[in-house]
Amino acid sequence: MLHIEGLSISIENRKLVSDFSCALSENEVTCLIGPSGCGKTSVLKWLAGILSPTLGATGALTLDDTGITPPHASTTYQPQSDALFPWLTIAQNAALGLEVAGIPTKTARADVLMHFKTFGLAGCENLYPEQISGGMRQRAAFLRTLVQNSRFILLDEPFSALDAVTRLRMQAWLCDQLAHTPRGVLMVTHDLHEATQIADRILVMPAAGGPLAANISVTTPRHARTETAMAQIRTTLKSLLLES
Ligand SMILES: Nc1ncnc2c1ncn2[C@@H]1O[C@H](COP(=O)(O)OP(=O)(O)OP(=O)(O)O)[C@@H](O)[C@H]1O
Fold first, then answer.
1. What is the mean pLDDT of each run of 10 residues along the chain (244 residues)?
2. C-alpha 157 to ligand 1 mean position (Å)
3. The ABC transporter domain covers which part of the protein (predicted)?
4. Element (H, E) at 13
5. Does the beta carbon of 39 sit less than 6 angstroms from any atom of ligand 1?
6. How high is the ipTM of this complex?
């Protein structure tokens, strides 16, 4: 279990995030939603240890009751864009996280190549990012993130650049991947439909600092999340977002 306690982030004299606390469970997808600019990405960046030093941040992070300081090997951050390097092949891009973690290039490449078929990337090993579709690039970015085997992954709007159909396919694909290799996921999204389809828990951030506006457990099994079944929770979330 990863606990964030009393996280506050300020920009000069303005509080962006204040008193943000939550617990992330392994095997649970937690979606973080909130109005634009409320600090969702900044929370993820703090957890990843890459928040700009020009922003002041205070707060405690504990992993299984032991205090830790970000960046920590238990978390991997996937930024908003797919962030693949255009001059590297898909295999080289996918292996990059392992190589940065100190795994020799040959071993890292062999590790990622094993997963190309499962990730729907067979045949793309030696292609460059511009030669494959947006959905494939996103899967390559997920491969780079997931092979790092960290207990928690931090996803910043991973599907925002995709068209509607690819987005739905990728959401289903991610749920399948997580069913096979469960991780704790904290995912920022603007899309209420996406949050209610994917999440086990939804955290709603307020517009102007302060504790979470809501922490909602989504108990409907994923296969039973029809429009009708999820209508009530979507209405609640819409009201919370409009209020904030
Ligand atoms: N390094 C920085 N220096 C100054 N201001 C920053 C910095 N990083 C973020 N901000 C400001 O902090 C605010 C919150 O940014 P953040 O990206 O965390 O919000 P968000 O909720 O993820 O936004 P969105 O939903 O629009 O992606 C924004 O107004 C942004 O301009």
1. 96 91 94 95 96 95 96 93 91 95 94 91 96 91 91 93 84 87 94 96 90 94 95 95 84
2. 14
3. 2-232
4. none
5. yes
6. 0.96
